[in-house]
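Field log, afternoon session.

UNIT: design team B
ACTIVITY: writing a sequence onto a fixed backbone
BACKBONE:
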């Protein structure tokens, strides 16, 4: 059977609508417990699963449902409370647990939420394991005998453990003294974590987006709304600004001049730094959306570049397959597999700062000569399951744009894996061409199926 619930980043949707309902999440917890840890329950000590969440109001409800489902499957539960997605990945591995679960919809608004899983080694679940969970969901919900039910307890030092891990990824020879940093936590999971990391390494920290109320996650702040960071950097005459998203697996950086650097550019900076320290980087992985200018710049460094499907899980798959370490998405998911098993906004920011320290250069100087091709991205909301690939009018508008842009740009159309949206992206040497053809295609989609 095909996957019905899992997208590119777990199960996600609007709270109160299938599948993000208390009854489904309870069944999901039970099914995941049976698949991820059922065999361990029969052959050894009772397995345990760690649950963390971001700051959405719905997190309380979904946490309770997951806990009940896992307990019914005979799995012990540890509750981390508000914790970043990469923090749960780290703690799951460090505490030798059977699995980790994050309740978060990442960069989405507060009224969405989702469930994503990490295996015992801190990696996102492969597609085949998610398929097994979906198959288990089709079976009746059962309950272990009372003497075999799972217990629950709170992991009180989760934040402190993770803060120390983040700090350990920054070179011992360096510190951040003398730097004024604005840290934007998006009113999300990192609100009581990220400021401490940078402060304890010596920086003068100005935190914003650190007053979550259950409804303001990603609302006008964070990596998906970097204007707030740009304003704060300028107003405070800061050296640098760091923006995370709601679950802190994305990163955007702003320099003292208010210039924004995305994941494509930061990947180039990290590759360049790794060459300076290790002498060579065999290859790096981006996505179908990665700016062509970055691919060309990496080629100039003698670094092979491979494009994966959009989604950090697919970047990760390519890195593992090739034995490489560095990959990224333009949205700010950055992977450095010798530092962490998954994308981590805080750790990535520390790697960027270390590159600047080592080189003695600003971000702008590190990216000298890398001029991004203009890209225009338009998100068009469509009906769930709409057949955009089979629509003749849409395909004609795409073909027409590709013919006009041949040799001077490219077109990428893809359905979001996390929401009913068609992403229309056009990249061209001239900004006016990118805007014109993106709007033409998006208009055709709206007229045809939106």
């Amino acid at each position: 059977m095909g996957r019905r619930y899992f997208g590119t980043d777990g199960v996600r949707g609007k709270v109160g609508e299938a599948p993000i309902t208390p009854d489904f999440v309870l069944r999901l917890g039970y099914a995941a417990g049976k698949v991820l840890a059922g065999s361990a329950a029969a052959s050894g000590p009772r397995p345990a699963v760690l649950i963390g969440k971001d700051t959405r109001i719905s997190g309380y409800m979904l946490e309770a449902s997951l806990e009940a489902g896992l307990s019914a499957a005979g799995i012990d539960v540890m509750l981390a409370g508000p914790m970043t997605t990469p923090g749960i990945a780290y703690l799951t591995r460090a505490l030798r647990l059977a699995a980790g679960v994050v309740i978060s919809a990442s960069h989405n608004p507060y009224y969405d939420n989702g469930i994503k899983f990490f295996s015992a080694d801190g990696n996102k679940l492969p597609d085949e394991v998610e398929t097994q969970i979906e198959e288990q969901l089709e079976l009746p919900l059962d309950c272990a005998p009372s003497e075999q039910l799972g217990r629950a307890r709170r992991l009180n030092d989760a934040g402190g453990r993770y803060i120390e891990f983040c700090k350990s990824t920054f070179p011992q020879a360096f510190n951040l003294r003398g730097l004024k940093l604005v840290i934007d936590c998006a009113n999300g999971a990192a609100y009581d974590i990220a400021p401490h990391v940078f402060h304890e390494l010596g920086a003068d920290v100005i935190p914003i987006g650190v007053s979550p109320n259950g409804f303001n996650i990603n609302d006008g702040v964070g990596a998906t709304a970097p204007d707030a960071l740009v304003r704060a950097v300028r107003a405070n005459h800061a050296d640098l600004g760091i923006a995370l998203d709601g679950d802190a697996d994305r990163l955007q950086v702003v320099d003292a001049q208010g210039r924004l650097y995305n994941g494509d550019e930061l990947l180039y900076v990290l590759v360049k730094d790794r060459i300076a320290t290790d002498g060579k980087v065999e290859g790096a992985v981006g996505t179908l959306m990665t700016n062509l200018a970055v691919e060309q710049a990496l080629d100039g460094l003698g670094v092979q570049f491979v494009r994966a499907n959009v989604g950090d899980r697919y970047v990760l798959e390519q890195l593992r397959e090739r034995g490489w370490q560095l990959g990224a998405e333009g949205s700010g998911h950055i992977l450095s597999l010798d530092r962490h098993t998954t994308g981590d906004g805080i750790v990535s920011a520390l790697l960027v700062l270390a590159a600047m320290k080592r080189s003695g250069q600003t971000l702008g100087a590190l990216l000298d000569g890398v001029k991004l091709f203009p890209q225009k991205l338009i998100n068009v909301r469509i009906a769930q399951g709409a057949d955009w690939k089979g629509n003749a009018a849409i395909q004609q508008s795409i073909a027409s744009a590709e013919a006009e842009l041949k040799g001077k740009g490219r077109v990428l159309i893809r359905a979001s894996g996390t929401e009913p949206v068609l992403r229309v992206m056009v990249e061209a040497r001239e900004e006016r061409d990118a805007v014109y053809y993106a709007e033409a295609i998006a208009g055709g989609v709206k007229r045809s199926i939106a």
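LOG NOTE: The chain has four domains: 6-157, 177-259, 262-366, 375-448.
NEXT ACTIVITY: expression trials, pending approval
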